[in-house]
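Milestone M4 deliverable, item 7.
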Amino acid sequence: MKLVRLATIPATIVSLLAFAQPSSANAVTANSGFYDHQIIQYQATAEVTSSPHAARLISKGNIVFHIVDASGNIPAVQLARLHAALPNDPTAGNVLNFIPTEVGYSGGAWNLQIFHWNPGVTPVELSKDDDIFAAVAAGQGTLEVTSTLVRCPVIDFAALR
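Output delivered:
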């Protein structure tokens, strides 16, 4: 089981990087995901680092959750609402725990954590950090903390305030 989980980390990073735009790009290409059961759009870039600066950013508590099934794939149910609402946005169905202007948001970057559905559990949409923590507490899955930092500026979040 641990080997399967370790194998999902590179795939997760690749999927995040595939959706990332180069910093020199003029157009903003949005990715879609969730924050507090609401659909959001954001830009994503991933960087793997173990520097003291990265450790400080991780310690701020911003988390981006990536959801995978027991096989390491993103469950279709995690993507369904996003594809229906924003069919032209790439998505990995990720969930942010904080957005700018929210009490507790500390800026910088989000630490990538991967929620793994346990075998035999039917995945459901997880669109809020509380949903993920409840699924872990109920024994439906496990949470894997990585050393990956993701910079994902949220786009047009005024309606979320």
